[in-house]
Design brief:
Number of domains: 2
Helix content: 10-25%
Order of helices and strands: HEEEEEEEEEEEEE
Number of helices: 1
CATH superfamily of the largest domain: Galactose-binding lectin
Strand content: 35-45%
CATH topology of the largest domain: Jelly Rolls
Strand order of the largest sheet: 2-5-12-7-8-10-11
Number of strands: 13
Distance between the termini: 8 Å
Shape: globular
Largest sheet: 7 strands, antiparallel
């Protein structure tokens, strides 16, 4: 990644010499995709201090398979949002998630992964990413420390292709077309859970 940055800077210098600031701006725009109506994708994608950000999320639980697990995603007065609920085993249940969709899809190839600032309950959680690869959902997991704020970094290489919760053989995650992001409580951790989230963003190594 850093070698690529050096190459870009060297080429940019040539553009300054040969074409001026206008050519430099055009070059940088071509190298760094600009989604969302022309705004450059910032390292902080979602900040839950804006309570309206929570409204873009919805629950996807095991009721699609007959289960009765529950989850909600609610804003707090502290400028965060909490993914909370109860995972139940009845009717072959065992999972709960919340999801937000991106339209247009996010092109995050200039970054190295997803970063979250969270406070959990000691349980294992994860992130799902969906792309145009329809046969797979890409999952990476992390373990929380109870009542402790953590910065979690999940590199693109950490995401494995899954289908119905099982690892499958599929192409590696392509970060150029992220269509949705989900938070999940890792399977079969029965009982109540709570994961507080302040920010979701991206990082460079």
């Amino acid at each position: 990644m850093r070698i690529g940055i050096i190459v870009v800077l060297a080429l940019a210098l040539l553009y300054i010499i040969n074409g001026g600031a206008g050519a430099l701006e055009a070059f940088l725009r071509a190298q760094r995709p600009i989604p969302d109506g022309g705004r450059v994708q910032e390292p902080e994608m979602i900040n839950f201090a804006d309570a309206t950000a929570v409204g873009a999320w919805y629950s996807r639980n095991d009721d699609v398979m007959g289960g009765i697990s529950e989850s909600t995603f609610v804003a707090s007065d502290a400028g965060s949002a909490t993914f909370q609920g109860v995972v139940r085993a009845e009717n072959n249940g065992g999972f709960a998630t919340v999801q937000t969709d991106f339209s247009p899809a996010r092109n995050l190839q200039v970054y190295d992964g997803i970063q979250l600032h969270v406070r959990g309950d000691g349980k294992k959680y994860g992130v799902y990413l969906r792309t145009d690869q329809r046969m797979a959902i890409y999952q990476a997991t992390f373990v929380t420390s109870a009542d402790t704020w953590q910065t979690v970094r999940l590199a693109w290489r950490d995401f494995v292709p899954t289908r119905f919760g099982r690892v499958i053989v599929a192409p590696a995650l392509d970060p150029r077309n992220i269509q949705s992001l989900s938070l999940l409580i890792e399977f079969s951790q029965f009982g109540p859970f709570a994961l507080e989230v302040k920010q979701i963003g991206v990082f460079e190594e």
